[in-house]
Amino acid sequence: MTVEALRSLPKAELHLHIEGTLEPELAFELAQRNGVTLPFASVEDLRLRYDFDDLQSFLDLYYACMAVLRTADDFRDLALAYLERAHADGVRHAELFFDPQVHAGNGVSVDAVMDGLLEGLRIAGERFGMTGGLILCFLRDLPAASAMETLESVAGRAGDLLGVGLDSAEVGHPPVLFADVFARAAELGLRLVAHAGEEGPAAYVREALDTLHVERIDHGIRAAEDDALVAELARRRVPLTVCPLSNVRLKAVPDLAAHPLRRLFDAGVVVTLNSDDPAYFGGYVAANFAAVAGEGFTVDELATMARNSIVASFAPDGRKAELLAELDAWVADSVEMPRP
Ligand code: HPA
Ligand SMILES: [Zn+2]
């Protein structure tokens, strides 16, 4: 199945860091607009650094590039650039992660970040008929007190968020440290997700479920090392937002052939495909579908993962029904008609 055909497959994207969609060209444009000096000679020089050993080596570059994002207009432009690409990739509904603690460190208020991103989503709704929302992520390598302070700073506008998540350097920063923060987020009516089992052990996946009470696990691939956990994820229908190209680029897996996606899928886990930080990892969501198709997943299996993304999304039920009908029509169309 070609990447063009997979672009037309209706899907939701559920694991996408909006700051990870910052392409080098836009980074330099925003640097100029805001009078920020990037520590890279050129777009080409920056792109040459997209060669990572692990999650931390990526995070160092990713956080450095965020320094160019200063105003609500910057966040609107960033969101629109992503949503336009996502629309071309068949994304009908997108849930955007953002990292307000990094922006606060750059002197940018969480309100400016949210206002800009929401404006981008509103325009994409008008232009492309897309829906979506925001998931505020806490940095797990900062103290839980900082996460709580960030959460309280947006408590008055919790209605502008879909939920909260947990990201950044995983190993040594277990989910349980954030149990109180997630309990407070639930009290505010927010949906809960967390990165777990990307570089960290399967035990972190279980801990995210048991102590944070998350509804979805971001990545979760190392859950595959624990048979009982895999069975439990399948039985409880806990969705995993898997990011195959990211896992290869950050060396969480040696290559796609060794990726546990097949094992998780065959065990009945609700897996979805996502791009994570597409500007850095060599492809947007359709490229992730195409990569997986190259590993022997059939059209029906790819459609199942797109269906999972719609079902696992935080879109309202009516919107989910609309998108599932669109997906059914795509599947019916993709069946080759017999010759008369
Ligand atoms: O893949 C990721 N893992 C953890 N934190 C992140 N922040 C952006 N991308 C990631
Ligand atoms: Zn991620």
UniProtKB/TrEMBL annotation:
Cofactor notes: Binds 1 zinc ion per subunit.
The protein's Enzyme Commission number: 3.5.4.2
Cofactor: Zn(2+)
Pfam families in alphabetical order: A_deaminase
Keyword Zinc: yes
Record: residues binding substrate: D277
Keywords, in A-Z order: Hydrolase, Metal-binding, Nucleotide metabolism, Zinc
Annotated site, Important for catalytic activity, chain positions: H219
Gene3D superfamilies: Metal-dependent hydrolases
Source species, domain of life: Bacteria
GO molecular function: hydrolase activity
Positions of the Adenosine deaminase domain: 10-330
PANTHER family cross-referenced by the UniProt entry: ADENINE DEAMINASE
Function: Catalyzes the hydrolytic deamination of adenine to hypoxanthine. Plays an important role in the purine salvage pathway and in nitrogen catabolism.
The family this protein is said to belong to: Belongs to the metallo-dependent hydrolases superfamily. Adenosine and AMP deaminases family. Adenine deaminase type 2 subfamily.
Name by which UniProt lists this protein: Adenine deaminase
